[in-house]
C-alpha cells in the first residue's frame, strides 16, 4: 500500500458508510465533531506513515541466504537456527557453494525493526530505535538522526568507548565522570555515542544520563545514542515488526541472556547494526567509526567560517579492542581523553603517557599488562604484546591528541574541562596554525558556550587578538544569546564601532527571535516595499531578503513610534549606501565581519553610537543580560535607561502575551531604578551638573531630554527624586531664591520697591556670594601656606571678566514678575476676583440688558478662552497637534475648563434670548459651580493639599462604582414599595419621586410616613391623581383606610435600611479607608510627578493675569503670526550644549556610572548570600582536597615524597664530598656525585622529549597501514628498529605495487643487498617506490626578498587544491643533477631550464640537506633520499620574472604556485618546515 493509498484509507474511515448521494447535516456534523476529536491521532498517523515509508525506502537489514550447519543444535555458521532462515536459504546437502562466508552468503532485505522502545519498570522510559545494515551509508544515518528523529545537530560528538564488561569504578572517579560527562553534554549541546548495551562503560553513561534526568526538569535534553550490534541483543524479537512498533515493549531483564546483552534503558536513541550474524560482537565498530567521521565533516550550526563538528573519544577501562579503537581514532585526528584509574588498557596508556618513547619498551608493557589485566594476561601471546607496544608508542607520539585525566592530579577542572581542553589542544596543533588556530578554538568555545574554557585556554598572554578577529565570535554570541561571551569578548578588545557596522546591525535585526518588534518591523518593511519608496526619504541602508527589505530606516521609524513623536529619528540619512547580498549571507558573513574596515567612512559619524545600537537591539526583544552588558558600555547611560523604560512599557502595553508583558514591565522598572541610582550618584557629587543632565538634549536618543523621557515613560519614582524636584523648584521660583519665604514674595508683589532692598533674595545674589566665599577661602589658604594660587595676570583678568554680575533694578523687577511662582499667585488673585465678579452678577446684577459688570465678566471669560487655546496649540516639545490634544484632554482640569466654558457659552446664548432668560441664568449658576470646582487645581502646587486632592480623585472613582451598587438596592426597594402603595400611577415626576428620590432620602434618615396607617391623612393626597401638587392616594378599603399590608412594608423598610444604610455605607467607608491607606504611601510620589505639568504651564504662561492677559495674547499674535518671528527658546526644560560641553558632561556621567557599578558590586560581594556562596565553595574545595589525600591510590603525594627523599639523599652525598675535599686538600678528591634533580613531571617529560627528538628512529616508515594498499606492516617497536638489535620474531610481509611494472607482485625481492639505513620498517619489497635501494628526490626552496629593503623573505610553494597542505617544488629524479620530471610538467620546460642553469652556479646555491627521509612509502629494501637546495633569486633576475609570470598565469587553477612569507606557521610537512627554518637562518630572516 502506497503512502497516498494509506492517507485515502484513513480519510475514508472517517466518513459515513452510506451517503446516498445526499447531504445529511446531522450526520456530517457528527462526523466533523469526531474528526476534531481525533485530529491529533490522525496527524500522528500520517507522520508515522511518512516515517515508515522513509525507513522502508532507505534502510535495510541483513539476513543469511545460505544455511550451513556448524555442527551443533542445527545451527548455521551465521549463528542463527535453521528455523530462523528463509526457505530459499535451505539448500540440499550436496549443494556446492563452498564454505560459509559473511561477504558472499548474506544479503540485504527491508528492515523489520524500527519505531519506539518502551522499557518496563518505573518511569516507562522510551527511546527510538532502528535496525540497519552494516553497509548503510553514514550520511543516511545522520539524516535519520537530524531529520526523521528531529535531533538538533550537535556542537560536539563525544564517543565513549572502553570495557564492554562490567567493571568497578571508584566512587570518586565515577561521580566525577558522571558529573563531567553530563555537564559537557548539557553546556555544549553534544551527542554522546556509546555501544548502547547495559554493560560496562555503556552502563555508566546510562547511569549518568539517568542521574541528570532525575535532577533536572529538562528531561530528555541529553542525547545518548547507542550503536549496538543487532545479533547480540537479548530479547530482540520484541522489537521486530515489519510496519514498525509504536511502541515496542522491551524487557531488559538480564535473566537467561547468556553471552548476549540487554539494551540500556537510559539511552535515548539506538542504531542496531546488523551483518546477518548472531552472537558476534564488534559488528558495529566500522559503521560507528564511519558515522563519527561523517558527523565530524558537518559544519557547526550558526557558523559561517566552515568550522566542523568536533569529535572526542573518551576511554574508560577496555581491552585490546579499545586500544585499536583509540589508535584508529587518533590516526584520524580525533583527540582521546583517557581516565586514569578506570582499569586495564586505560591505566596502561595513562601510566606511559608522559614517558619518552624510548622508555616504553616491550618489557614495560608486559609488566603493566600483567599488573592491570590480571588473569587475562595469561591469554596474551608475545606477538600481541609486540603489536600493542607499537600502537601504544604511536599513541604517545601524538601528545596533542592524548589527554590523561587524573583524579589525584593538582589540576583545576573536572572531566568536562579535560574533554574540552583536549579538543582545543588538538585544534591548536592541527592544520590551523597561529591566528587561525586560536580563531577556531574561540568559535568552538562559543558554540559550546563555555566561557571558563575561553578564559583559561584561549585568551591567554600568548594570544594577541585584533578586534576584527573577534567579530565572527561576537556575532555568534549575540545571535545565540550568550551574554557571558559577549562580556568576555568586549573585555578582550572587541571594538563596537568597528564591529557594529550598518550591515551587521541589519543582520542582527533580521535574526531577532520572534517578538512583537520584529513583527511590526517586518510589517513596516513590507508596506514600504509595496509603496516602492523609502519610508522617510532616506537612502535605504538596507538588509535584503527574497521577501522583504529591513533597513535602519524602518528600525528608526518603529523606535520613534515607541519613544514618542516628540523625538527625532535615531538613524539620520546618510550618503553611504551599503549593499549586502543575502542569498549568500551565511557563507559571506565571516568575510563581511572580518573586512568591515573597507566599508567604514573616512570621517566618523558623530550621531553614530554603536553602544546605543547594541543596547536598543537587546532591549526590544527583552533580553536582560545582553541589555545590561550594553548599558554598561553606553555613554549616555541615564538617557538610555529611561528610553529603555519607555520602550518596554510601550511594548508591554501593545503585546498580547501577559507573561512576556510582565517581564517587560519588570525590566522597565529595573532600568528606571538604574537611572535613579546613576542620577543619585551624580547629584551627590555635583548638583549643578546632575540637573544639567536632566535638561540637556540627547543627540543619541531622538534629541529629547532625560526629564521628558521620564515623564513620557511614567517613571514616577525617577521624577520624585530630590534632585529632580530641586530642579523643578528652581524653575518654579525663576530667578528668585528657593529659600525665600512665601510671605516675603507676597509682600514684594504688593509693594515692589522692597526688591531693591535685601528683603528678597535672588539666585544671582547667591551665586555672587558663593564666588566671594571661594575667593576668601583661597586667600586664607594662600596666607596659611604662603603659596600664590594665581600667578598669571591673564588668568586673573579672565576670571574677572567671567564672574557673575549682579542684577540691575529693571532686571530685578522683570525677574520678580516673570517668575512662575509669582504668576501663580497673581492668577490665584485673578481667579478669586473672577469668581467674586461672577457671583455678584448672578446674585445682584443679572439684568435683561447686560450691565457693565456683566460685560467685564464676558471679557474675563474671553481671556480665559484665549489662554486655553494658547495652551492647546503651544507645543515647545514638538509633540504634534494630535499628541498635544490627547494630552490636553487627558487632564481632568482641562476637561473642567472646557466644560465650564461650554456651559457659559450655552448660558450666554439662553440669556440673550428673552424667552430663555431665566433658563440661561440657571445654566450660568450651574456653570459657577464648575468654576468653583476648578479652584481645586490651585491647591495642587501645595505640598500639604496636593496629595489630598489625589486621594479625593481616587475616592471619587470608588464612589462611582459604589453608587452603581447602591442604585440597585434603591431602585429595587423604591419600585416595590411604590407598586404596593400606589395603583396605576401615570405621572412621571411622582413615579421618579416615589421609586428613586424617597428611597434615597430614606438612607439619610427621612423615613416615609405613608408606609403605615398611623399618620395617614386622606386630605394630603389625591384620589385620582388629578392634583399635580399632591401624591396619589394609596389603595383604600371600605373604611377609607389604606388597604396595603402594613406588616410587609415595614419589613421591607427594615431590610432595605439594614442593607443600604448599614451594610453598603459601611462598605463605602471601608473602601475609602482602604483607598486612603493604599494611596497615602504613593500620594507624595504622584504629586511630585504631576507637579511638573503645573510648573511647566505657569512657566510658559504670560506674566499678566486675566483679563490683562489679553494684552500678552495680542502681543504674541502680532509677533508670531503677523511678523512671523520665532519664539524665544526655552532653556529651563531643554538645553542644547556645545560639543565640548557635551563630551565633558558625558565623560563625567560615565565616571559616575562606573563608581555606581563598582559600589554595587562591592555591596553584592559583601552581601550575606554572596558570603554564604563563597563559604560553601571553599568548603567544597577543602572536601575535594581531603578526598584526594585520603585516597589510598593517590600517587601524587607519594611521588612528591619520593622526589623529596631522593633530593635529600643527593644533597647529603654532595655535602659529604665537600667535607672530604676540605679535609684532604692535597689529596685528589673522588669524582663528584652526579646530582640528578628530579623536576616536576611536565618539565621532565618536556626536556626528555626534546633530547630524544634528535635521536628518534623513523616513525612514518613504521606506520601499520601502508599507503595505497591494504597491506599491514609487521609491528616494530622503538627498541627493535636498529638492525643490530636481535628481533627473532620479526617476519614482515613482502609487498611490491603492481603499478611499478616489474612483475614481482608480492614475491621476494631479487636481491637482499639493500637494507634500509634507518632500521626495520615492518615491510619488505619495493612497495610503491620505483626501485630497490635509495630513491632519490630533489626539493627546491626558491626564495626572494619581498621589497628592496629586504624586510621580508618569501619562498615559492606549490598548492594543490585537492589537499590542504603545501609542498615545496620538486619530485623524484633519476640521478643527481637532474631536474624532476614532475617539475617540468607543473612549471614548464622554459622555467625548468633556467632553474637548471642557475643550479650550476654554486655561489647562488645553498645545500640545505642531503640524506634519508622518513617517508611512509619506505620499506626494508627501498627508501627515499632527498636533496634540498636553496636558490635565492635577485629582483632583476630573468628567472624571477618568468616565475612571477607563471604564478600570475596559474593563479586561479586547482594546482598553482604562489609566494609566501618564510614563517613557522606555514602548512608544510614537519621535515620541510625544518629545512625552511635553516634557510631563514642562512638569510638572517625571521622565522
Describe this structure in words.
The protein is α/β, with parallel strands linked by helices and 1487 residues long. It is 51% helix and 9% strand. It is built from 50 helices and 23 strands. The strands form five sheets. It has a ten-stranded mixed β-sheet with strand order 8-3-4-9-7-6-5-10-11-12, with helices on both faces. Helix 5 links the parallel strand 5 and strand 6. Helix 5 packs across helix 12 and helix 12 packs antiparallel against helix 13. The longest helix is centred in the last third of the chain and has 55 residues, at 1046-1100. The protein is elongated and about 150 Å long. It starts with a helix and ends in a 5-residue tail after the last helix. The model is unreliable at 6-23, 533-547, 574-604, 790-802, 1237-1255 and 1302-1309 (pLDDT under 50).
Separation, N- and C-terminal Cα atoms: 70 Å
Query: pLDDT under 50 segments (min length 5)?
Result: 6-23, 533-547, 574-604, 790-802, 1237-1255, 1302-1309
Helix percentage:
40-55%
Please state how the strands of the largest beta sheet are arranged side by side: 8-3-4-9-7-6-5-10-11-12
Count of alpha and pi helical runs: 50
For the CA atoms, what is the radius of gyration?
48 Å
Mean pLDDT: 81
What is the percentage of strand-forming residues? 5-15%
Amino acid at each position: 500500500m502506497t503512502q497516498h493509498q494509506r492517507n485515502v484509507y484513513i480519510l475514508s474511515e472517517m466518513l459515513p458508510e452510506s451517503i446516498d448521494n445526499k447531504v445529511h447535516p446531522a450526520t456530517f456534523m457528527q462526523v466533523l465533531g469526531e474528526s476534531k476529536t481525533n485530529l491529533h491521532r490522525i496527524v500522528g498517523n500520517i507522520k508515522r506513515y511518512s516515517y515508515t515509508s522513509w525507513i522502508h525506502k532507505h534502510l535495510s537489514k541483513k539476513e543469511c541466504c545460505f544455511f550451513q550447519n556448524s555442527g551443533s543444535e542445527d545451527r548455521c555458521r551465521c549463528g542463527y537456527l535453521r528455523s530462523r532462515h528463509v526457505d530459499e536459504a535451505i539448500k540440499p546437502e550436496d549443494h556446492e557453494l563452498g564454505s560459509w562466508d559473511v561477504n558472499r552468503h548474506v544479503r540485504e532485505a527491508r528492515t523489520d525493526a524500527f519505531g519506539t522502545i518502551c522499557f518496563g519498570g518505573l518511569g516507562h522510559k522510551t527511546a527510538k530505535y532502528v535496525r540497519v545494515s552494516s553497509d548503510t551509508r553514514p550520511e543516511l544515518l545522520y539524516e535519520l538522526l537530524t531529520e526523521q528523529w528531529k535531533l538538533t545537530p550537535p556542537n560536539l560528538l563525544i564517543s565513549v568507548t572502553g570495557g564492554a564488561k562490567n567493571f568497578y569504578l571508584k566512587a570518586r572517579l565515577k561521580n566525577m565522570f558522571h558529573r563531567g560527562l553530563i555537564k559537557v553534554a548539557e553546556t555544549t549541546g553534544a551527542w554522546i555515542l556509546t555501544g548502547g548495551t547495559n554493560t560496562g562503560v555503556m552502563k555508566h553513561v546510562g547511569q549518568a544520563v539517568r542521574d541528570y534526568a532525575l535532577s533536572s526538569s529538562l528531561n530528555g535534553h541529553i542525547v545518548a545514542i547507542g550503536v549496538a550490534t543487532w545479533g547480540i541483543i537479548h530479547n530482540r524479537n520484541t522489537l521486530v515488526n515489519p510496519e514498525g512498533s509504536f511502541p515496542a515493549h522491551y524487557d531488559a531483564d538480564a535473566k537467561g541472556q547468556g553471552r548476549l546483552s540487554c539494551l540500556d534503558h537510559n539511552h535515548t536513541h539506538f542504531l542496531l547494526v546488523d551483518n546477518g550474524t548472531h552472537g558476534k560482537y564488534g559488528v558495529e565498530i566500522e559503521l560507528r567509526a564511519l558515522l563519527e567521521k561523517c558527523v565530524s565533516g558537518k559544519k557547526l550550526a550558526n557558523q559561517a567560517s566552515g568550522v566542523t563538528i568536533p569529535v572526542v573519544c573518551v576511554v574508560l577501562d577496555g581491552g585490546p579492542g579499545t586500544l585499536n579503537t583509540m589508535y584508529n581514532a587518533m590516526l584520524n585526528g580525533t583527540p582521546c581523553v583517557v581516565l586514569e584509574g578506570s582499569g586495564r588498557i586505560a591505566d596502561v596508556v595513562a601510566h606511559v603517557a608522559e614517558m619518552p618513547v624510548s622508555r616504553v619498551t616491550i618489557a614495560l608493557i608486559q609488566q603493566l599488562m600483567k599488573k592491570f589485566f590480571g588473569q587475562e594476561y595469561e591469554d596474551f601471546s608475545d606477538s600481541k604484546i609486540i603489536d600493542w607496544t607499537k600502537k601504544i608508542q604511536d599513541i604517545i607520539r601524538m601528545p596533542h591528541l592524548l589527554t590523561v585525566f587524573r583524579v589525584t592530579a593538582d589540576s583545576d577542572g573536572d572531566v568536562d574541562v579535560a574533554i574540552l581542553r583536549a579538543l582545543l589542544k588538538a585544534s591548536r596543533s592541527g592544520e590551523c596554525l597561529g591566528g587561525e588556530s586560536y580563531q577556531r578554538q574561540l568559535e568552538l568555545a562559543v558554540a559550546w558556550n563555555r566561557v571558563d574554557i575561553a578564559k583559561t585556554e584561549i585568551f591567554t598572554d600568548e594570544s594577541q587578538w585584533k578586534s576584527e578577529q573577534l567579530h565572527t565570535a561576537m556575532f555568534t554570541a549575540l545571535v545565540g544569546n550568550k551574554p557571558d561571551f559577549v562580556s568576555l569578548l568586549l573585555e578582550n578588545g572587541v571594538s563596537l564601532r568597528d564591529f557594529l557596522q550598518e550591515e551587521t546591525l541589519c543582520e542582527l535585526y533580521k535574526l531577532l527571535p520572534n517578538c512583537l518588534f520584529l513583527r511590526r518591523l517586518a510589517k513596516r518593511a513590507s508596506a514600504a516595499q509595496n509603496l516602492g519608496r523609502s519610508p522617510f526619504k532616506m537612502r535605504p541602508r538596507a538588509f535584503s531578503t527574497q521577501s522583504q527589505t529591513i533597513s535602519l530606516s524602518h528600525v528608526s521609524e518603529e523606535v520613534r513610534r515607541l519613544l514618542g513623536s516628540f523625538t527625532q529619528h535615531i538613524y539620520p540619512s546618510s550618503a553611504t549606501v551599503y549593499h549586502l547580498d543575502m542569498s549568500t549571507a551565511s557563507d559571506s558573513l565571516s568575510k563581511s565581519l572580518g573586512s568591515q574596515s573597507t566599508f567604514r567612512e573616512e570621517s566618523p559619524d558623530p550621531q553614530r553610537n554603536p553602544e546605543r545600537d547594541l543596547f536598543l537591539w537587546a532591549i526590544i526583544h527583552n533580553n536582560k543580560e545582553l541589555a545590561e552588558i550594553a548599558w554598561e558600555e553606553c555613554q549616555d547611560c541615564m538617557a538610555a535607561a529611561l528610553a529603555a523604560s519607555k520602550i518596554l512599557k510601550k511594548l508591554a502595553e501593545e503585546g498580547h502575551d501577559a507573561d512576556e508583558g510582565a517581564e517587560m514591565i519588570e525590566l522597565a522598572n529595573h532600568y528606571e531604578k538604574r537611572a535613579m541610582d546613576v542620577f543619585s550618584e551624580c547629584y551627590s557629587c555635583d548638583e549643578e551638573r546632575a540637573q544639567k543632565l536632566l535638561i540637556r538634549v540627547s543627540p543619541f536618543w531622538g534629541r529629547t531630554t532625560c526629564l521628558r523621557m521620564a515623564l513620557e515613560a511614567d517613571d514616577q519614582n525617577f521624577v520624585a527624586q530630590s534632585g529632580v524636584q530641586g530642579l523643578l523648584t528652581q524653575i518654579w521660583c525663576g530667578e528668585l531664591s528657593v529659600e525665600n519665604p512665601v510671605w516675603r514674595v507676597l509682600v514684594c508683589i504688593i509693594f515692589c520697591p522692597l526688591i531693591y532692598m535685601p528683603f528678597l533674595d535672588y539666585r544671582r545674589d547667591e551665586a555672587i556670594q558663593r564666588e566671594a566665599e571661594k575667593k576668601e577661602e583661597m586667600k586664607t589658604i594662600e596666607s596659611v601656606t604662603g603659596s600664590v594660587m594665581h600667578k598669571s595676570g591673564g588668568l586673573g583678568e579672565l576670571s574677572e571678566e567671567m564672574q557673575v554680575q549682579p542684577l540691575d533694578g529693571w532686571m530685578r523687577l522683570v525677574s520678580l514678575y516673570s517668575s512662575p511662582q509669582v504668576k501663580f499667585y497673581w492668577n490665584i488673585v485673578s481667579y478669586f476676583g473672577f469668581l467674586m465678579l461672577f457671583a455678584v452678577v448672578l446674585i445682584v446684577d443679572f439684568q435683561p440688558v447686560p450691565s457693565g459688570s456683566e460685560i467685564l465678566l464676558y471679557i474675563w471669560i474671553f481671556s480665559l478662552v484665549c489662554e486655553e487655546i494658547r495652551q492647546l496649540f503651544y507645543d515647545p516639545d514638538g509633540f504634534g497637534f494630535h499628541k498635544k490634544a490627547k494630552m490636553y484632554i487627558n487632564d481632568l482640569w482641562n476637561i473642567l475648563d472646557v466644560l465650564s466654558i461650554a456651559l457659559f457659552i450655552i448660558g450666554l446664548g439662553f440669556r440673550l434670548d428673552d424667552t430663555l432668560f431665566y433658563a440661561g441664568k440657571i445654566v450660568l449658576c450651574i456653570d459657577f459651580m464648575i468654576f468653583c470646582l476648578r479652584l481645586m487645581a490651585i491647591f495642587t502646587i501645595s505640598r500639604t493639599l496636593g496629595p489630598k486632592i489625589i486621594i479625593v480623585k481616587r475616592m471619587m472613582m470608588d464612589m462611582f462604582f459604589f453608587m452603581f451598587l447602591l442604585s440597585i438596592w434603591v431602585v429595587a426597594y423604591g419600585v416595590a414599595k411604590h407598586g404596593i402603595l400606589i395603583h396605576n400611577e401615570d405621572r412621571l415626576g411622582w413615579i421618579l419621586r416615589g421609586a428613586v428620590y424617597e428611597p434615597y432620602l430614606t438612607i439619610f434618615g427621612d423615613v416615609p410616613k405613608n408606609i403605615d396607617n398611623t399618620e395617614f391623612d386622606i386630605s394630603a393626597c389625591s384620589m385620582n391623581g388629578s392634583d399635580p401638587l399632591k401624591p396619589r392616594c394609596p389603595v383604600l378599603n371600605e373604611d377609607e383606610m389604606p388597604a396595603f399590608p402594613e406588616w410587609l412594608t415595614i419589613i421591607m423598610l427594615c431590610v432595605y435600611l439594614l442593607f443600604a444604610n448599614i451594610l453598603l455605607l459601611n462598605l463605602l467607608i471601608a473602601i475609602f479607608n482602604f483607598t486612603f491607606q493604599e494611596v497615602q504611601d504613593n500620594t507624595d510620589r504622584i504629586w511630585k510627578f504631576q507637579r511638573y505639568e503645573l510648573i511647566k504651564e505657569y512657566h510658559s504662561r504670560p506674566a499678566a493675569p486675566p483679563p490683562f492677559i489679553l494684552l500678552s495674547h495680542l502681543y504674541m499674535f502680532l509677533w508670531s503670526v503677523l511678523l512671523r518671528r520665532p519664539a524665544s527658546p526655552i532653556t529651563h526644560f531643554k538645553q542644547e550644549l556645545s560639543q565640548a560641553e557635551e563630551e565633558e558632561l558625558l565623560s563625567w556621567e560615565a565616571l559616575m556610572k562606573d563608581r555606581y557599578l563598582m559600589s554595587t558590586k562591592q555591596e553584592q560581594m559583601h552581601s550575606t548570600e554572596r558570603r554564604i556562596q563563597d563559604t560553601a565553595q571553599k568548603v567544597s574545595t577543602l572536601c575535594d582536597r581531603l578526598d584526594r589525600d585520603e585516597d589510598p591510590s593517590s600517587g601524587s603525594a607519594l611521588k612528591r615524597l619520593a622526589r623529596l627523599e631522593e633530593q635529600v639523599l643527593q644533597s647529603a652525598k654532595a655535602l659529604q664530598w665537600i667535607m672530604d675535599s676540605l679535609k684532604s686538600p692535597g689529596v685528589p678528591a673522588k669524582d663528584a656525585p652526579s646530582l640528578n634533580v628530579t623536576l616536576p613531571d611536565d618539565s621532565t617529560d618536556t626536556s626528555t622529549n626534546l633530547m630524544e627528538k634528535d635521536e628518534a628512529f623513523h616513525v612514518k616508515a613504521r606506520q601499520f597501514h601502508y599507503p595505497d594498499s591494504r597491506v599491514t606492516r609487521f609491528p616494530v617497536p622503538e627498541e627493535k628498529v636498529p638492525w643490530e638489535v636481535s628481533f627473532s620474531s620479526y617476519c614482515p610481509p613482502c609487498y611490491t605495487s603492481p603499478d611499478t611494472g616489474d612483475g614481482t607482485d608480492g614475491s621476494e625481492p631479487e636481491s637482499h643487498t639493500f637494507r634500509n639505513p634507518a632500521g626495520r620498517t615492518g615491510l619488505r619489497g619495493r612497495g610503491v617506490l620505483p626501485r630497490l635501494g635509495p630513491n632519490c628526490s630533489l626539493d627546491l626552496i626558491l626564495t626572494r626578498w619581498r621589497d628592496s629593503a629586504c624586510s621580508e623573505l618569501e619562498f615559492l610553494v606549490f598548492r594543490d587544491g585537492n589537499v590542504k597542505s603545501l609542498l615545496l617544488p620538486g619530485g623524484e629524479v633519476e640521478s643527481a643533477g637532474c631536474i624532476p620530471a614532475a617539475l617540468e610538467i607543473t612549471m614548464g620546460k622554459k622555467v625548468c631550464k633556467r632553474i637548471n642553469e642557475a643550479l650550476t652556479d654554486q655561489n647562488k646555491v645553498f645545500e640545505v640537506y642531503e640524506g634519508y627521509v622518513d617517508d611512509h612509502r619506505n620499506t626494508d629494501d627501498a627508501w627515499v633520499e632527498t636533496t634540498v637546495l636553496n636558490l635565492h633569486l635577485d629582483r632583476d633576475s630573468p628567472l624571477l620574472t618568468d616565475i612571477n609570470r607563471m604564478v600570475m598565469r596559474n593563479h586561479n587553477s586547482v594546482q598553482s604556485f604562489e609566494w609566501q612569507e618564510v614563517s613557522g606557521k606555514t602548512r608544510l610537512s614537519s621535515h620541510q618546515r625544518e629545512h625552511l627554518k635553516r634557510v631563514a637562518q642562512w638569510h638572517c630572516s625571521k622565522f
